[in-house]
Amino acid sequence: MKIRDIIESKGRTVSFEFFPPKTQRGEDVLFETIKRLSVFKPDYVSITYGAGGTTKDKTMSVVERINRDNPFSVVPHLTGIGCNKKEITAIVEYYKRIGIENILAFRGDPTEETSKLPKIKDGFNYAKDLIAFLNESNSFCIGAGVYPEGHPDSLDLNMDMFYTKEKVSAGADFFVTQMFFDNSFFYDFLRRADKAEINVPIIPGIMLLNNFPKVKQLSGMCKATIPVELDKLMVKYADSPESIQKVSIDYTTKQCEDLLSQGIKHFHFYTLNQWQIVSKVIENLSLKAKS
Ligand code: FAD
Fold first, then answer.
1. CA 235 / ligand 1 centre spacing (Å)
2. Average pLDDT of span 249-270
3. Which of 85, 146, 193, 224 lies at a CB distance of 3.0 to 4.6 Å from 219, suitable for a disulfide?
């Protein structure tokens, strides 16, 4: 089912992001996580695509397996960086064959080794180019990324919003945000998007604090502010797994409660392939009943 139809037809949605693991052990953990989280009847799950397309084959095989074995929609992430149109066409033809109806489309980032954006003949400079290409001869529902605190390369928030609007003109049906830990950035983004007459759904991407060092590293890379109070808690409890779990559950539950109180109805959780914390958060919020 297409995400735009799911959003339109449901008052509230819950979805999860997973990444394709590199090892057999990681794969076992991923599929156990999916099994544990399926009790919440997710509306869809998304599978990331490694920087510079480095997980292309793994992303495709994980998407195929989850899609085959589960009732919910599976949304592959896809990036245009370093790819030409022929390569993207081969990937999307595969997704069409296995019944995928939605794609999350991004520009992507260079890998640590390359560090520069490659120039590819017949390639894609920005996410909007990939979105427009996907829309040319396919009927996918397309999601794209937005940045409540601005994209790290953006010089100013107005240009950032201008480019966000271009993604809608190119055919983006919905947005998922970059992680944020202070909801005021998200509310400000919604106000600015409204002013820019962006009227597709904007779904908050909620990062679970499963692993403090990893979350700090990721938030540093994408310039998502970690509030001072949260940072203090992360430092204080760095060596106590039980406390980390408690702090994480409390923090994310409060963050989501605040979003719910402001009328936010759709939640996309960055699980980092772990179920323990997100399960507790969803139970605390009664977002989805077990059955
Ligand atoms: P774009 O929209 O193309 O923007 C990139 C930069 O270019 C921004 O600074 C923008 O302001 C600027 N820009 C846009 N258009 C123009 C223009 N016409 N002229 C000049 N400047 C312009 N990456 C992965 O590799 N794999 C993933 O699976 C993945 N999943 C993600 C999931 C989410 C929810 C989000 C928010 C991001 C994800 N990313 C992923 C990261 C993403 O690839 C990076 O943030 C990347 O740096 C930008 O991607 P974009 O699609 O937002 O790019």
1. 30
2. 97
3. 224
Enter the DSSP assignment of 74.
Answer: E
Task: Clarify whether 17 is annotated catalytic.
Answer: yes
Mean pLDDT of the chain: 94
Contact 114, 149 (CB under 8 A): no
Which amino acid, 146? V
**List of residues 6+ apart from 112 with CB closer than 8 A:** 51
Interval 121-149 mean pLDDT: 96
Query: Residues 8, 17, 149, 197: which is the catalytic one?
Result: 17
Question: Which residues surround ligand 1 with Cβ inside 6 Å?
Answer: 48-49, 51, 77, 79, 106-109, 126-127, 144-145, 151, 153-154, 160, 163, 167, 176, 178, 205
CA of 200 to the centre of ligand 1 (A): 18
Structure confidence at residue 288 (pLDDT): 54
Kindly state the helix (H) or strand (E) to which residue 16 belongs, with its residue range.
strand 13-18
Per CATH, the number for 3-285 is 3.20.20.220
Can you tell me which atom of ligand 1 is nearest the CA of 48?
28
Cβ burial, residue 166 (10 Å; 0-12/13-18/19+):
middle
